[in-house]
Specification:
α3 packs across α4. The chain has 2 domains: 101 residues, Rna Polymerase Sigma Factor, Chain: A, CATH 1.10.1740.10; 82 residues, Arc Repressor Mutant, subunit A, CATH 1.10.10. The protein has 9 helices and no strands. The protein is mostly helical and 200 residues long.
Amino acid sequence: MKAEVTYTDAELIEAISEGTDLNRAIQFIYRQHAEATSSFIRHYGGNEQDADDIFQDAVVAFIDVVKKGKFRMESNVRTFLASIAKNCWFNELKKRERAGHRNKQFEMSRPQDEPDVAEHINELERKKQLRDLVDGLGESCRKILLLFYYENMTMREILYHLPYENEQVVRNKKYKCLQQLTALIKDNPAVARQMQEIIK
């Protein structure tokens, strides 16, 4: 079993700068510094995934700084990584806050004429009232009207479902049923409108 490679800060900077065994250097950074950063992120409202993402961003930024020769060793690697992670996380929080504000603004600016649940319930209620009125006409009228208007059957097709002599008898019966229904709904404007929509 291979012993884990360790680095002083100076050796770590050198390994990254020269690109020698970069993978081992990165593994060392994760082993030595990930937990401290993770703890910081969780303390300031993040979760495990946030901590992983932020630390990864911090490592990428740190390697970029070192490769460009901009790491001055004015602080140790742990402090520098923590500083990058802190900035990344606070920027992320600001971004989320702005996104939350935008979502709130979007919700407030949505058109208020979207379909209303109350209107949908009223529509169902009107249909129920109409159905109740049709039911009150008696079994034969109910069957004729429902077969014709809801099932879209022709007079010939209705004849197979009901005990009438011919299509003309069915047509006459339907007409009488509609007259009865019209009389029942004339005092109910909502149901009358519903009836007009159904009877083309």
